[in-house]
Design brief:
16% helix, three-stranded antiparallel β-sheet, alpha+beta, Immunoglobulin-like, elongated
């Protein structure tokens, strides 16, 4: 029995010194389930400024914005100047049916140009 014990101890010592066990590898397992979301981390440090962008190209100035003029006389007829175009018109006063009558470059409210109950307002723009 003593010989068996010595042989067993010697075998264990040899196995402990052997690289044979270290070279054995298991097969790769299946991918596990996704874990829970972690806590939010601390805010990072501010980064360096980026490179300077290139200069934009110089363009010709555009046309000036149209000039608008409101014409609101104390009468029921109004018109724009010769170098203007009418872009809007409306009537104010007492009426049952909307009385706006637009014409070439102006407007009238109602059939009576001398009306004291209707007033026209128009908006003119430079051409």
């Amino acid at each position: 029995m003593r010989k068996l014990s010595i042989a067993l101890i010697a075998a264990l010592i040899l196995v402990g010194c052997s690289d044979g066990i270290k070279e054995m590898k298991a097969e790769k397992g299946d991918k596990g389930e996704k874990g829970d979301k972690g806590e939010k981390g601390d805010k990072g440090e501010k980064g360096d400024p980026g490179p300077v962008g290139r200069a934009g190209e110089k363009l010709d100035p555009g046309a000036p914005a149209p000039t608008l003029r409101i014409v609101a006389p104390q009468s029921s007829v109004a018109s724009c100047e010769g170098d203007e175009v009418m872009i809007s018109a409306y009537c104010i006063g007492n009426f049952n049916n909307y009385p706006l009558v637009p014409f070439a470059n102006g407007a009238r409210c109602g059939d009576d140009p001398a009306s004291t109950t209707l007033r026209v307002t128009i908006v003119c723009a430079k051409r």
